[in-house]
């Protein structure tokens, strides 16, 4: 009778695969034996497998360059990392090993850029794409970058007032971009994105404010769909509108030579996740090429700003099951040694699902369970997967520890939960461990941060 956890996974998914495998009934992730990591550091534990960051950067670069070659596309591809996905130094340092550019969204991002330059990790020729609604400090910091000689700093105008602010006290030529306020999907509560300048205003704005200013050069048209890059009529319609606007602008603005399609490549959220990345890259390039040919306009350079795609699949959270509670005839609760609200806030805020697997005891029978966190909030739970309205784990056996892992949660979790600050019910932030590969191909671990202490919380609270 095939009623063991390993049978369930093998019957449900293609397992093992390039990422996950099993050795002696214990899970390995990118050939890292996770029980060894748990034995060394304990749980709860957040881990990052740094080589995955570079692998995804190179993957995207390869796909878009191949797509351009197939289409005989006369333009270049540029990979930007979206810093808001994860601002940690180890992420930015790993990203910059792969010759990428940077996209920012706030004033403090610019301080990070300056620090990376001082460390010798970033040179002044890199493109710095400055998105977001720009308050005075952000404006001042962007001006500072330009005056320091970061010649490829490109502020993306989010509204009609930012250019005047940017040019105050500036006596040098600057390159700018304009963000298009795209139409949102019908399911949204509003029709048009709050970000950017609406389609009908862009050309009049260019003629009035940019074309008449000898110190301003329009370099880039920025286009982004909030729901990501998907093979839907909605996405293609918005892309076509943006490229047609580019062609129209190019006729009167010869220095315009770039379209930024933003981010939006998805990450794997369950083991049978399917997404044809190569097809989407080829179709995007083909659509842009065809529209430009029809309008007798040279194809633009293409920028992407992948954040989650860059870093998401490098992260994981490991927990132990500290107890099991039978709450009624049908609901069995496995309590973890942390909180979903504080460590994986996306699961609580937007019902985000991640790849979830047992770490050990794969030869045990499986059972359906609910997973509960330690806070007193009734929403601190996880009881369904992306592919199934249920969670299955090995049966709890007395005197036998059970560990579980959530994978591909390397983007946004720390910034959304307020890493290092005050967590709900004062649940401490877990240890954070980095995993990398040495020159011999062997993995090694490094403790980045200890579990948050009560003293740090007391200090924040004013005690």
List the helices and strands and how they pair.
Blueprint: H1 5-12, E1 20-23, E2 26-29, E3 32-33, H2 34-41, E4 45-49, H3 51-70, E5 77-82, H4 89-96, E6 101-104, H5 107-118, E7 128-130, H6 136-147, E8 153-157, H7 162-167, E9 174-179, H8 199-210, E10 216-222, H9 233-252, E11 258-260, H10 277-294, E12 301-306, H11 308-311, E13 315-326, E14 332-336, H12 340-343, H13 345-349, E15 355-358, E16 366-372, E17 381-382, E18 391-394, E19 403-407, H14 413-417, E20 431-437, E21 443-449, H15 454-460
Parallel strand pairs: 4-20, 5-6, 5-12, 6-7, 7-8, 8-9, 9-10, 10-11, 11-12, 14-16
Antiparallel strand pairs: 1-2, 2-3, 4-13, 13-14, 13-19, 15-19, 16-17, 16-18, 20-21
Helix pairs in contact: 3-10, 5-6, 9-10
Structural class: alpha/beta
The strand count comes to 21
CATH fold type of the largest domain: TIM Barrel
What percent of the residues sit in helical stretches (DSSP H or I)?
25-40%
Domain module tally: 2
Q: Average pLDDT, to the nearest integer?
A: 93
> What oligomeric state do the depicted chains represent?
single chain
Q: β content, as a range?
A: 15-25%
Number of helices: 15
Q: Tell the overall outline.
A: globular
Given as residue ranges, the uncertain stretches (5+ residues, pLDDT < 50) are none
Sheet with the most strands? 10 strands, mixed
**Kindly, what is the distance between the CA atoms of the first and last residues, rounded to a whole number of angstroms?**
59 Å
CATH class of the largest domain, named Alpha Beta
> Mind telling me the C-alpha Rg?
24 Å
């Amino acid at each position: 009778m095939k009623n063991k956890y390993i049978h369930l996974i093998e019957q449900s998914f293609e397992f093992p695969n390039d990422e996950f495998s099993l050795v002696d009934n214990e899970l390995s992730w990118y050939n890292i034996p996770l029980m060894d990591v748990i034995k060394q550091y304990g749980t709860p534990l957040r881990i990052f497998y740094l080589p995955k960051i570079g692998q995804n950067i190179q993957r995207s670069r390869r796909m878009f360059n191949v797509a351009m070659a197939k289409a005989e596309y006369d333009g270049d591809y540029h990979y930007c990392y979206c810093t808001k996905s994860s601002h940690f130094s180890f992420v930015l340092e790993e990203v910059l090993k792969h010759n990428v550019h940077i996209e920012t969204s706030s004033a403090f991002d610019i301080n990070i850029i300056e620090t990376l330059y001082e460390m010798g990790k970033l040179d002044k020729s890199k493109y710095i794409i400055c998105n977001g609604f720009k308050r005075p400090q952000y404006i001042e910091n962007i001006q500072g970058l330009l005056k320091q000689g970061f010649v490829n700093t490109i502020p993306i105008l989010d509204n009609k007032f930012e250019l005047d602010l940017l040019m105050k006290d500036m006596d040098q030529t600057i390159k700018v971009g304009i963000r298009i306020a795209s139409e949102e999907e019908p399911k949204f509560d509003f029709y048009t994105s709050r970000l950017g300048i609406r389609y009908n205003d862009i050309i009049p704005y260019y003629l009035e404010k940019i074309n008449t200013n000898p110190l301003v050069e329009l370099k880039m048209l920025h286009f982004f769909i909030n729901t990501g890059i998907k093979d839907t009529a909605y996405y293609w319609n918005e892309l076509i509108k943006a490229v047609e606007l580019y062609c129209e602008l190019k006729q009167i603005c010869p220095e315009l030579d770039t379209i930024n399609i933003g981010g939006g490549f998805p990450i794997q959220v369950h083991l049978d996740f399917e997404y044809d990345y190569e097809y989407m890259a080829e179709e995007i390039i083909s659509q842009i090429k065809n529209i430009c040919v029809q309008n007798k306009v040279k194809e633009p350079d293409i920028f992407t700003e992948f954040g989650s795609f860059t870093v998401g699949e490098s992260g994981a959270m490991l927990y132990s099951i500290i107890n099991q509670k039978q709450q009624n005839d049908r609901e069995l609760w496995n309590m973890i040694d942390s909180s979903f609200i504080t460590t994986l806030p996306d699961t609580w805020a937007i019902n985000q699902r991640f790849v979830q697997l047992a770490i050990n005891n794969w030869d045990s029978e499986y059972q359906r369970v609910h997973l509960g966190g330690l806070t007193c909030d009734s929403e601190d739970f996880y009881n369904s997967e992306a592919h199934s309205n249920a969670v299955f784990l090995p049966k709890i056996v007395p005197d036998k520890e059970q560990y579980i892992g959530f994978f591909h949660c390397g983007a946004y979790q720390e910034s959304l939960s307020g890493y290092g600050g005050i967590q709900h019910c004062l649940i401490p932030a877990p240890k954070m461990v980095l995993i990398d590969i040495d020159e011999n191909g062997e993995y090694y671990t490094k403790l980045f941060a200890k579990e948050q202490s009560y003293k740090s919380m007391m200090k924040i609270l004013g005690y």
